[in-house]
Automatic annotation (TrEMBL):
PANTHER family named among the record's database cross-references: GLYCOSYLTRANSFERASE, POLY-BETA-1,6-N-ACETYL-D-GLUCOSAMINE SYNTHASE
Protein name: Glycosyltransferase involved in cell wall bisynthesis
Domain of life of the source: Bacteria
Glycosyltransferase 2-like domain ranges (all copies): 5-111
Key words, A-Z: Transferase
Coiled-coil stretches: none
SMART domains: TPR (SM00028)
CDD domains xrefs: Beta4Glucosyltransferase (cd02511)
Molecular-function GO terms, alphabetical: transferase activity
Signal peptide location: none
Organism: Marininema mesophilum
Amino acid sequence: MISISLCMIVKNEEKTLDKCLSSIHDLVDEINIVDTGSTDKTKEVVGRYTERMFDFKWVDDFAKARNFSFSKATKDYILWLDADDFLKEEDREKFRELKRDLDPTVDQVSMLYNLHYDDKGNVFSRIRRERLVKRSRNYQWHDPVHEYLEIHGKIMDSNVVIHHGKIHHNKARNLSIYEKRLERGETFSPRDIYNYGNELIENGRLEEGLEQYEKYFAANSPYIEDNISACGYAAHCCHLLGKREEELKYLLKSFEYHAPRAEFCCRLGLWYQSSNNPDAALSWYNHATQIAPLHDWGMTNVAARTWIPHLQMAVIYGALGEIEKAYEQNKIVLSYNPDDPQALNNKKKLESYLAKGITVATQAGGEKT
């Protein structure tokens, strides 16, 4: 059986770190925690799980901090997590089996990463990330912000899921790092431009963010998932700015890079829905329901290919007075989210309409669900 070093970087994580470490501490053989300047009780939490705690002077570079944490590992493989990540019980068992059965010729193991959830705890979006890497390969992290691990060799995709439980986000920190780099005269790679645009939008600087996305598109990046994601961010930015035609342009531009994704079909459905074009909206929503994920390495919007398009079609059919169709779509929503309050309210109203024999012909003007 392989041995595993957990390597993490932390700063002021007292609110989430205990949940993280309690979910993984007994599954690894070594815990290395690198603190980059905590002023809360983070170190006290760390002390409950390991004595291998190291200080690292923060230099506005996440890659350097992560590489320092990796340098402290002594076991066969390195597992990395953030302080607000954790494993649920079913995934602890999957991880235990993975550790027991892993072929030692594997260089890197990826795991699913559930990023966002709805109010009921249902997964809204997920991605796949490299998580467990062979120490002897000496993999290195790159880029000061939105750092990435450069990997190669034999890769295995596992079914272990890491859950993200973020409760706070320092929006200004990452933007500050990018702007300090610009002040120093650094030349940004296409990936830097893309991430800088994202940080500008996070901080409400929408027009500047759009400028960065245009620079990014002009750079002809070979990274398909970033290209598609940039289209989504740019469209969202235009939506917030009330630039409807530009929003449509960016949504359609995503199709230049790969087959349509369910998220973009739903967003096109919403665009046409708000343009009082129900036929076009229904077509795009219906298309979203038929798209299977091509892979799980890029960001996957789980809701956009499950319940969201059906909920919107229920709303549209209800407004058109096509009550039976609305009811059928709403049933599908409830099959995914049985406790969804909007769908439950729709069910009650639609059943009332059906009981009264309300049809397209009798419901003048249509009534929204």
